[in-house]
């Protein structure tokens, strides 16, 4: 029976601005997180914000593009095909607990100093955390549903992110209750959570363009920067200033 340190590898990478990893497919599964990269699989493009990771099963071709203007730290946990079924058979975005980062950081440290027994124990905890994490088809699910598609188009419109969700929903003839029910059935996420994620992605993209926190706050409908900062930290575990320096 193989030991976990033969089935799981933790690797760290540093990406410089505009770095590009060409198309490739790994024999092992890849779970990538920490840095903000664009990962493309076929025609789909994934951007995984902080506290989310992207799981790519074995033998699926993909490429990576650095979208940061600064050096980005990135972690890839490679999972042997014999245990990759514990996670998911298809590409998934996984929600991570804040302490997951500390677990991985400690595992890397223990491996470097040769504490193999405790390192093996942490690998099991890390695998359990990945296996039990909440999964999504994407951080920001999309829909082609005839009723929902135009609604979510409005909800994610940059020019309307400052408008209350209820205000936008009231513009459609279908009742808000029915919209909420359809959203849960079709997308497995609440409208509030979906729109919060849309705002987070917009905020991150603006931070990368050196837009001020005050201006982003205003565009998202916050009267005070402190309210926006609190919202951002609640969803990412980090402040906007920290993200802008990643």
TrEMBL record:
It holds the Pfam family HTH_18. Gene3D superfamilies: Homeodomain-like. Keywords: DNA-binding, Transcription, Transcription regulation. InterPro entries: Homeodomain-like_sf, HTH_AraC, HTH_AraC-typ_CS. The keyword Transcription applies. Residues 145-246 form the HTH araC/xylS-type domain. PANTHER family: ARAC-FAMILY REGULATORY PROTEIN, HTH-TYPE TRANSCRIPTIONAL REGULATOR NIMR. This is Helix-turn-helix domain-containing protein.
